[in-house]
Amino acid sequence: MKQFKVTGMSCAACSARVEQAVRGVRGVDTCAVSLLTNSMTVEGTASDAEIIAAVQAAGYGASSKAGATATPQKLTDEESPRLLKRFLGSLIFLLPLMYLSMGHTMWGLPLPAALSENPMALALGQLLLSGIVMVINQRFFIVGARALWKRAPNMDSLVAMGSGVSFLYSLAVTFEMTMQPQVAHEALHGLYYESAAMITVLITLGKYLEARAKGRATNALRGLMELAPETVTVVRDGEERQIPIEAVVVGDVFAVRPGERIPVDGEVIEGESAVDESALTGESLPVDKRVGDRVTSATMNQSGYLRCKALRVGENTTLARIVETVEAAAATKAPIAKLADRVSGIFVPLVFGISVVTLLVWMLTGSSFDFALARAISVLVISCPCALGLATPVAIMVGSGLGAGQGILFKTAVSLEAAGRTEIVALDKTGTVTNGAPRVTELFCENGTEEELLAVAYSLEKRSEHPLAKAIVETAEPRGIGELPLSGFQSMTGSGVTGNSGDTRLLGGNLRLMDDMGVNVPASARQWAEDCSLKGWTPLYFARGASVLGGIAVADTVKSDSSQAIEELKAMGLRVVMITGDRGATARAIGEQVGVNEVYAGVLPDGKADVIGQLRERGRVMMVGDGINDAPALTAADIGVAIGAGSDIAIDAADVVLVNSSLTDLSAAIRLSRATLRTIRENLFWAFFYNVLSIPLAAGVWFPLLGLTLNPMVGAVAMSLSSLCVVTNALRLRRFPLRNPKKFQARALKKAEALICVESEVKTMKTVLKVEGMMCPRCEAHVKKALERIEGVAEAIASHEAGTVTVTLSSPVEAAVLKLAIEEEGYQVVE
Fold first, then answer.
1. CB atoms within 10 A of CB 168
2. pLDDT for 134-185, tens place per residue?
3. Residue 690's CB: how many other CB atoms inside 10 A?
4. Per-residue pLDDT tens for 231-288?
């Protein structure tokens, strides 16, 4: 995707013309132009030079954004001051013009005798003042004439034509007054100098107000850019020194004092502190950071002194990527805007045609030329293509900016729209509904106390590298459990661990290990294990000698906010589905705990995309995941959502990223999308309704029936206000309470229904490991035996010649478990 800056656009007709020109370039697949940000996004193989040349041939300017760094200065509103200066300059000459043309006739204001008794002098005074005003606002005429010359008329063309015709007609009347002095007093009423000038001044005022409002629409993006400090304190040669943020490189050590923002992404190597991450995640509570923890650019160091090592700098920092995402979303177009784009492409030529027809019809029906011309000019100046062009992009910019400030990133306008149309939400279990890391959930004592049980478990598991061992160690250490002297430690892949404490044998593992080692497991302990399995927990027995001390249940626990988030999704009328590799009973237990509508159990990683395909037959599907193996499912869904703490591959494959890794952000994202869609619909309705209502009124359609006509100056005011209304309506989104669960609740909530659990047929999945160290068939047998002892491994085929092991899985098995089993046999997994 390439991004370009486009200059010279003034309305939707301009952006439509640029899109049409670029789409005609060979090698361009898609092109989207944003009138709000004056940017263009192009996909395809065409070169930058060809694209820029096509834009220039259409009468506009373009330059590539490649390599350009986003800065707050680039979003500074430079247009508003320029328009204000132009408006105030015009007003100085417009006021005396209005006094001369209308003050004495409408309000009875006195005129100097030299003017009141000399109509020719009065006409020339109006000519001079209106000419000055039109020179000040010459941009309308220059740009409008250029667009007409290239047969691509735009809003400037409409204004230039309306104002120019009024001026030229008045000039002709003035010339007639010089030829026939006896009718000069009557001819004064046929002058439209004030209309010619007023039209340009009012449109300039409208453009100024519109530019101010558009500038507020980019406030969220500008605010994000301003979070990055301009300088960084780096430590070089043992000394701290200030350098520009652009000079920081990966590996630099930088210091951050309390009250300073963290400049780049890094890792803490010295110190402890609380860091406020609310600017990026929306989370109000500070996060404690210590040695080894990651820190993120633009977050605020609150309490302690930190030294960190830079890991990602420049355009690779989290802040830079967020800014890039928001910019990209604003530069793309939502499908809902397609109708407005089609209308914008033909709008201005159509208005010119209506204006000409209006003039001819009124002339043919016997009306005076003055009346017919006023109606034609009114049609030109009241028609507003800008409102159509701004209806969607302003709402998209405000919505995506609001989301970014709350840790919700929409990558494109399409994703912002699609999220609100979701009907089914599919959640991957591990890391999305659950924490993604095992934790101890229950202690069961058969013989002895909890301290004795934990002492044996801690002594054994501290020496193990199994993922479940870490959970037990993290539980025992805070309780001050002492480690027993241990010898002869042995890890038995797929079963458990053993060791000796003095003359006593210690064991820890599953029921199969206990049975193999002759340990008597009483019925109460077996029942406990069955109960744990039904809850989705993994039960581990621990024994001393031939006696079972008890058991420890370990599980990937449910996130604290999962149940609340799922309840909010269901309240919004969505059907929530959980996809997991767990078997039926375990999957059902977790599904009932969090309150989903359906559970798809026993789904292997490569089967998730198939489940999404089935769900899509029932409605629009949103898939939420965090792992590498979720990427195909994220791509297969109508819209993919990645948890921010997940893998980079999942984040790249997704359409929406939740930076804060909280499921409550998912319901907030859908609310925001629905609010944005509602705003876009309101804007489009107003833009179409305004033009459908105002053009017939300006043309005088209602004059024969109701006597209603429209002065061209009133038409200019209406044109200006129409764009302002659209932008202002979009700005209301900034105050939308996206975390209010009462917003967008379904009007009639469905009655509670029984959980549906669909267990997939047992399928197999193959994975190939590259292993070094196998020298002969005996080595192959060792590896094969070690892997096939693991629950979930159906078959393992090793080849010492190829240096590979092909593992066939009947149920999901962690890669770390496979790797550990091979390495315990003395071989090394390299890939």
1. 12
2. 999 998 888 888 878 877 777 777 778 888 888 888 888 888 888 777 667 7
3. 22
4. 899 998 888 899 988 889 999 999 999 888 899 999 999 998 888 887 766 666 688 8
Provide mean pLDDT across the span 482-493.
83
Nearest to 769 by CA among 828, 716, 722, 812: 828
pLDDT of residue 254: 93
Q: CB of 8 within 8 A of CB of 70?
A: no
Q: What percent of the chain has pLDDT over 90?
A: 11
| CA distances for 59 relative to 7, 21, 54, 82, 144, angstroms | 10, 10, 9, 22, 11
Query: Quick one: tokens of 306?
Result: 């930190």
No. of H helices and E strands in the chain? 32, 31
Count Cβ atoms within 10 A of the Cβ of residue 785 and give its class: 0-12 exposed, 13-18 middle, 19 or more buried: middle
CB 39 within 8 A of CB 64: no
- Residue 491's beta-bridge partner residues? 497
Share of the chain above pLDDT 70, in %: 85
Say if CB 231 and CB 264 are below 8 A apart: no
Q: Which two tokens stand for residue 740?
A: 């209010």
Query: Is 647 a residue whose pLDDT tops 60?
Result: no
In this structure, are residues 141 and 134 in contact, taking their beta carbons and an 8 Å threshold? yes
Cα-based distances in Å from 541 to 162, 457, 482, 513, 791:
88, 9, 19, 9, 17
Tell me whether residue 428 is one of the annotated catalytic residues: yes
Distance CA 431, CA 627 (A): 8
pLDDT of residue 433: 85
Nearest-angstrom CA–CA distance, 297 and 398: 23
- Choice among 428, 630, 638, 665 that is catalytic: 428
User: How far apart are the C-alpha atoms of 522 and 47, rounded to whole Å?
Assistant: 75
Q: Residue 113: CA atoms inside 13 Å, Cβ hemisphere, count?
A: 0
Q: Alpha helices of 746-814 — where are they, by DSSP H?
A: 777-788
Query: Tokens 């109000």 appear where?
Result: 284
| Per-residue model confidence as pLDDT tens digits over 585-644 | 677 878 888 888 888 887 776 678 888 888 888 889 999 887 666 778 888 888 888 886
Placement of tokens 């430590």 in the chain: 235
Within 8 A by CB and 6+ apart from 228, the residues are 245, 261, 263, 297, 298, 317, 319
In the predicted structure, residue 346 carries a pLDDT above the cut 80: no
Centre a 10 Å sphere on the Cβ of residue 436 and count the other Cβ atoms it contains.
Answer: 19
Instruction: Specify whether the CB–CB gap between 4 and 47 falls below 8 A.
Output: no
Least confident of 6-15, 497-506, 537-546, 658-667: 6-15
Cα–Cα distance, 696 to 704 (Å, whole number) = 12
Q: Residue 490's CB: how many other CB atoms inside 10 A? A: 11
Q: Comparing 65-74, 296-305, 573-582, 673-682, which segment has the lowest mean pLDDT?
A: 65-74
Q: What is the DSSP letter of 315?
A: G
Structure tokens at 355: 């204006």
| 3 state SS of 741 | coil
What six digits make up the tokens of 323?
């800014």
